[in-house]
Amino acid sequence: MKSGISAAVIKRLPRYYRHLDELMESGVDRISSGELSKRMNITASQIRQDLNNFGGFGQQGYGYNVQYLYDEIGKLLGIDKQHGMIIVGAGNLGKAIANYGNFEKRGFIIKALFDSNTELHGKEIRGAKVYGLDKLEEFVAENDIEIAAIAIPKNYAPEVAERLIKCGVKAFWNFAHTDLNLNNDIIVENVHLSESLMRLSYRLHSTEERNG
Question: How high is the pLDDT of residue 60?
Fold first, then answer.
């Protein structure tokens, strides 16, 4: 991927991918930037500007080939290949992540879950077995794991992350209620569900104030 692409553009790529997927399911073969604009509530000029960062993918007066654009954005997102993934934490959140079947479609293969609760060990969640944390390093080393979803209490998250880094995990999808501050070679996506809900609350409150 080209360097210097803004975070805002990168953030929009998954939205393009999702809408293009829906278009293919509806049997749409070709779409203009104007038509895509109406679906996504983004201006047509913004869409063209975003895609021009990566070569454009369309022709003036001809629009975009939906399948081709879908495939190319998939390559940009790195989901044209499979990524081995584990979940640390098999509580309610970890189970919910494991049960979301759309991950496999996107190339994210959940190979196992890990938890300190011995009552969960040996159970399977959507085909992925739950192991004790003592099996973490051995499993990661033997199964080519690139990504770890962290769904454990914040006090334990940094220690577990450091263990995983030492055995080769390159990226973290962090749901622990703390930001993981790791070395610059490690990729972290911190997800704070409560912050998202508070942003929603702010917007609701602001709308109510404007409307009296």
Answer: 63
Token digits of residue 44 = 């047509």
Tokens of 136: 């973490």
Residue 212: band (very low, low, confident or very high) from pLDDT cuts 50, 70, 90:
low
- Structural element, H or E, at residue 150: strand 147-150
Angle between helices 7-25 and 33-40 (to 10 degrees): 100
For residue range 104-152, what is the model confidence (pLDDT) as tens digits?
888 899 999 999 999 999 999 999 999 999 999 999 999 999 999 999 9
Distances (CA, A) of 163 to 5, 107, 113: 32, 25, 15
Supply the pTM of this predicted model: 0.80
**Which of 52, 77, 102 marks a domain boundary?**
77
1, 55 Cβ separation under 8 angstroms: no
CA distances from 188 to 10, 46, 60, 112, 152 (A): 15, 27, 38, 20, 15
Range of the domain at 19: 7-77
Sheet holding 58-59, edge to edge: 30-31, 63-65, 58-59
Tell me if 201 is assigned to some domain: no
Say whether both 101 and 172 belong to one domain: yes
Cα separations in angstroms, 153 against 51, 161, 176, 187: 39, 12, 6, 20
Residue with tokens 């409150």: 205
